[in-house]
Amino acid sequence: MYEGNLFMENLVMVLAKLPEAYAPFSPIVDVLPIIPVLFILLAFVWQASVSFR
After folding, report:
1. The model scores a pTM over 0.90
2. Where does the chain cross the membrane (predicted)?
3. pLDDT per residue over 3-26, tens digit each?
């Protein structure tokens, strides 16, 4: 395996884990990236409710 690639994989694993102080917020942090998608879906539902004017 390429040594630089192994370093990047280890770096991602280190950055992916929250610090101990924020560990209780992990479930919330897991959901946060979905919020923009929900806003886009809300825009489609809103436009469908007003017949895409």
Report:
1. no
2. 25-46
3. 667 777 776 766 678 899 999 999
